[in-house]
């Protein structure tokens, strides 16, 4: 691995003090996951990162970014700054400034991580591509992503998220994208914003970070589209509208959803495009349209990008599909859709559509396990109950619910659809397996805080899992 930061370069970027020479090949904020050659950043949140500097150095870190000298640590292995978070932001800004990369920033209530990963897949064959790990999209995740960016990067994809007003604009200005995307605006984090228009204004703030002459991609099919369009124009951006609406610059013409793939026909900036992705779902079709449009605007070859996207599949917790043998003796094999990473009304609807498009085997059924959608504020109970009206429910046999908010959905469901209700994921994990039969297709979806991923883990531990992630015939 090449050198990412020398001691002198890092000190110049942060205005910090050094007393020794070192070369960092990576950056880490968790002492438990330090790789040899990392610069450990001693952030303070629930715990003070300075307490873990010695451990990080012992595990292979070459140096640590600190605001004080921890007891017993050699100052020659430290980069000392006035404030660690400010130092990390400065390192991120310097990482962005030293590269000639075409930078794409993406936010949105739903789909931002998927679009980021699609862009990584689409762009990597065409140039050195750098993208955020996992969901590194907050006040420390964005600067870490930028600070980790090699100087010779040609394409960079930066995910930007938010929980409260005023978070996106500073991160967008730090990233300085050439292309900025708002995937969609949906009821998420309503607890902090009150109304969906507030969410739209916050998401639109990503356009404030655009480089001069930059391009804004905005969803045309949503009720708050005008807020996004007006913001893009106010920021002097070139606006590209996407969606199914007639007349937009990037239009999803058709999405043919099969059990293990989606075939997409689109019109992008005046050119007809046909592509296939290895996952079923109309929401994936829209995400692919966004990614392919952004790749083209960033200067990549759209045909090559479309070919590369054909190899994309969802990753764990984001719609991964796998077969699990729960009992070899009884030949009890189920198919599980692991979408347990997060949830809001829009992503729940997309997940239910994906379940409805699935084809159970033999006497199998379509079954949903839905956990609470969090951070919806006073509208939470009504938004949970409204899931019962989703058209996909007509093709689903049973809905199990987890958590106090999902009790509102449970009460709204017709009796024939009601499965079990559990107060916790652990309770559901203990009771669910004995209700399943061979051929069932099981969707597991919920906000991260309700921990329905524990249901996923419990099922995997019960049987032997064979992940196929929607790739081709089974």
From TrEMBL:
<comment type="pathway">
    <text>Cell wall biogenesis; peptidoglycan biosynthesis.</text>
</comment>
<dbReference type="GO" id="GO:0009252">
    <property type="term" value="P:peptidoglycan biosynthetic process"/>
</dbReference>
<keyword id="KW-0963">Cytoplasm</keyword>
<keyword id="KW-0131">Cell cycle</keyword>
<dbReference type="GO" id="GO:0008766">
    <property type="term" value="F:UDP-N-acetylmuramoylalanyl-D-glutamyl-2,6-diaminopimelate-D-alanyl-D-alanine ligase activity"/>
</dbReference>
<dbReference type="InterPro" id="IPR036565">
    <property type="entry name" value="Mur-like_cat_sf"/>
</dbReference>
<keyword id="KW-0132">Cell division</keyword>
<feature type="domain" description="Mur ligase N-terminal catalytic">
    <location>
        <begin position="25"/>
        <end position="67"/>
    </location>
</feature>
<keyword id="KW-0436">Ligase</keyword>
<dbReference type="Pfam" id="PF08245">
    <property type="entry name" value="Mur_ligase_M"/>
</dbReference>
<dbReference type="InterPro" id="IPR035911">
    <property type="entry name" value="MurE/MurF_N"/>
</dbReference>
<dbReference type="InterPro" id="IPR004101">
    <property type="entry name" value="Mur_ligase_C"/>
</dbReference>
<protein>
    <recommendedName>
        <fullName>UDP-N-acetylmuramoyl-tripeptide--D-alanyl-D-alanine ligase</fullName>
        <ecNumber>6.3.2.10</ecNumber>
    </recommendedName>
</protein>
<dbReference type="GO" id="GO:0008360">
    <property type="term" value="P:regulation of cell shape"/>
</dbReference>
<dbReference type="GO" id="GO:0047480">
    <property type="term" value="F:UDP-N-acetylmuramoyl-tripeptide-D-alanyl-D-alanine ligase activity"/>
</dbReference>
<keyword id="KW-0133">Cell shape</keyword>
<dbReference type="GO" id="GO:0005737">
    <property type="term" value="C:cytoplasm"/>
</dbReference>
<dbReference type="GO" id="GO:0005524">
    <property type="term" value="F:ATP binding"/>
</dbReference>
<dbReference type="Pfam" id="PF01225">
    <property type="entry name" value="Mur_ligase"/>
</dbReference>
<keyword id="KW-0067">ATP-binding</keyword>
<keyword id="KW-0547">Nucleotide-binding</keyword>
<dbReference type="InterPro" id="IPR051046">
    <property type="entry name" value="MurCDEF_CellWall_CoF430Synth"/>
</dbReference>
<dbReference type="Pfam" id="PF02875">
    <property type="entry name" value="Mur_ligase_C"/>
</dbReference>
<keyword id="KW-0573">Peptidoglycan synthesis</keyword>
<feature type="domain" description="Mur ligase C-terminal">
    <location>
        <begin position="335"/>
        <end position="447"/>
    </location>
</feature>
<feature type="binding site">
    <location>
        <begin position="108"/>
        <end position="114"/>
    </location>
    <ligand>
        <name>ATP</name>
    </ligand>
</feature>
<dbReference type="InterPro" id="IPR005863">
    <property type="entry name" value="UDP-N-AcMur_synth"/>
</dbReference>
<comment type="function">
    <text>Involved in cell wall formation. Catalyzes the final step in the synthesis of UDP-N-acetylmuramoyl-pentapeptide, the precursor of murein.</text>
</comment>
<keyword id="KW-0961">Cell wall biogenesis/degradation</keyword>
<dbReference type="InterPro" id="IPR036615">
    <property type="entry name" value="Mur_ligase_C_dom_sf"/>
</dbReference>
<dbReference type="GO" id="GO:0051301">
    <property type="term" value="P:cell division"/>
</dbReference>
<feature type="domain" description="Mur ligase central">
    <location>
        <begin position="106"/>
        <end position="295"/>
    </location>
</feature>
<dbReference type="InterPro" id="IPR013221">
    <property type="entry name" value="Mur_ligase_cen"/>
</dbReference>
<comment type="similarity">
    <text>Belongs to the MurCDEF family. MurF subfamily.</text>
</comment>
<dbReference type="GO" id="GO:0071555">
    <property type="term" value="P:cell wall organization"/>
</dbReference>
<dbReference type="InterPro" id="IPR000713">
    <property type="entry name" value="Mur_ligase_N"/>
</dbReference>
